[in-house]
Write a structure and sequence with these properties.
- By secondary structure, the chain is an all-alpha fold.
- It has 2 domains: about 190 residues, Up-down Bundle (Growth Hormone, Chain: A), CATH 1.20.1250; about 190 residues, Growth Hormone, Chain: A (Up-down Bundle), CATH 1.20.1250.20.
- About 80% of the residues lie in helices and about 0% in strands.
- The protein has 20 helices and no strands.
- The termini are close together.
């Protein structure tokens, strides 16, 4: 069979563009010594573990913190909302700063800010203090999340990027799974401030290991403060609207309108720039754009499923909290097991194929959990959640790899910021979907409906990747 011309830019490909590959090879050589390379990789992965553990621990400790600070549970939700809003507000600006000032410098600033804010959390005497500290934690976390894979791309050769993304997914999955158990263990022997204090020594090690990261100069491009303000306002309004949409519909609608206006102004302002804050240049690429859309759909469906399952297990199936945790564990553990393998395999085959198979597996697992008569055989939930973990691991690693290889090396920071933004937008949409279903339907049926909705969203993500994959590989006929 005769091979046709190379695929056009903006389509799925298993290899980076030649220019990007040569750029990458030059940058990867900046970390020649194997011990230094391992230290650089470990610093990035450890920083990801740090910020994910922080989120997981804080989420499960909300009731304890609310009781200790003598505040209503509804007010304690702002501990989570402040962190999430700060993340969304800062991901793209941190990516832009990384490209301008150098990835390592901004990454280390982010870790330093995160650790200072973590100390503030541990010392917080009031809810207001804690919310402010969590806001600062989110700003620091944004630098880590936006630049993690961009830094790995500078450290490892291009042919190992899929494996590096798999390591990153493994670190996130393991810390997500360990966070609730770690938080429960700490709270069983100590007060809630220790949830944050135990992270400090770990963060100190990350800061020291970050010296091994390559010090690649940035572009020295000046930051556009008005664009940063519009970006922050867009996402802050969006997150707050999502938090009040079921209780104050009029306020939520007004905030959504304000968010849309600010986004429109931001796009108009950034449209003609060579390296816009919102990466419009990357979004013009078919491959990158499809990866972003699929990521939002996948994370929305996954979040709807993860939020719905505990309610389904406890309210509809009568399980205790401990058993609920037992039935949830196979999902992140399977992600942790499959992610490194998916990273290696995605270097050898079309990322579109892995995304499609992963999306279908995740969709099938969620649909099975919604439709299977689990009252008769609850153990059937274990292979279904494992199927969800398998699907998410395959999809996420391959989709992220495609997203980064669709962007030139010089725009790795922007790709990382957009990847993190897509993830958080999807998670926010999934949580809002779950809330709306609870308000519209009886509590005993809403979780199953949310599982079904999550299955549909992931099926759409798989379909998009399949269609794009067909388009990308039509030249091989």
């Amino acid at each position: 069979m005769k091979r046709g011309p190379a695929p056009k830019a903006g389509r799925f490909s298993t290899q980076p563009e030649p220019a990007a590959a040569s750029e990458h090879a030059a940058d990867a050589l900046s970390v020649r010594a194997q011990p230094r390379r391992l230290a650089a990789i470990s610093s990035v992965l450890a920083a990801m573990v740090l910020v994910v553990l922080n989120t997981a621990i804080a989420n499960m400790a909300l009731p304890t913190i609310a009781q200790s600070l003598h505040v209503a549970p509804a007010l304690s939700i702002w501990i989570i909302t402040a962190n999430q809003a700060a993340l969304l507000m800062a991901l793209l600006p941190c990516a832009a700063l990384g490209e301008s000032l150098g990835y390592r410098r901004v990454f280390r600033w982010g870790v330093t800010l995160f650790m200072a804010a973590t100390l503030m959390c541990a010392l917080a005497p009031t809810l207001s203090w804690l919310i402010a500290a969590r806001l600062l934690q989110g700003l620091g976390s944004a630098a880590v999340m936006a630049l993690a894979i961009a830094l790995l791309r500078q450290v490892v050769p291009s042919q190992q990027l899929g494996a590096a993304i798999g390591w990153n997914a493994l670190a996130v999955a393991l810390s997500s799974a360990a966070g609730p158990a770690m938080g429960a263990a700490i709270l069983s022997v100590a007060d809630w401030p220790w949830l944050f204090a135990v992270l400090l020594p770990f963060g100190l090690w990350v800061m020291l290991a970050a010296h091994a990261l390559p010090a690649v100069d940035g572009t020295a491009r000046k930051a556009d403060l008005l664009s940063i303000a519009l970006n922050a306002g867009t996402f802050a309004s969006l997150v707050i609207a999502a938090g009040v949409i079921t209780e104050q519909t009029a306020l939520a609608a007004a905030l959504l309108a304000i968010s849309a206006i600010q986004l429109t102004l931001l796009v108009k302002r950034e449209r003609q720039k060579e390296a816009p804050l919102i990466p419009l240049d990357l979004l013009r690429s078919n491959s990158f754009r499809i990866s972003v859309i699929a990521s939002v759909l996948c994370f929305a469906g996954q979040t709807a499923g993860l939020v719905a399952l505990p309610f389904y297990l406890q309210h509809s199936l009568g399980q205790e909290v401990l058993m609920t945790g037992f039935y949830m564990i196979p999902w992140p553990l399977t992600v942790a097991l499959i992610a490194p393998l998916a990273g290696r395999l995605s270097n050898r085959r079309s990322t579109a194929w892995f995304c499609s198979v992963g999306g279908i597996c995740l969709s099938t697992g969620l649909a099975g959990a919604a439709l299977w008569p689990l009252q008769e055989n609850l153990m059937m939930l274990v292979p279904l959640t494992m199927l969800c973990g398998l699907g998410f691991g395959l999809f996420n690693v391959a989709n992220n790899r495609n997203m980064f290889l669709s962007a030139p090396m010089s725009r790795s920071g922007a790709a990382g910021g957009m990847q993190g933004t897509a993830r958080l937008l999807g998670q926010t949409a999934g949580a809002v979907l779950m809330t709306l279903l609870f308000n519209l339907f009886p509590a005993d049926s809403a979780p199953q409906l949310a599982l079904g909705a999550g299955a549909l969203l992931n099926l759409f993500a798989a379909l998009i990747c399949t269609l794009q994959g067909r388009q990308a590989y039509s030249y091989k006929s």
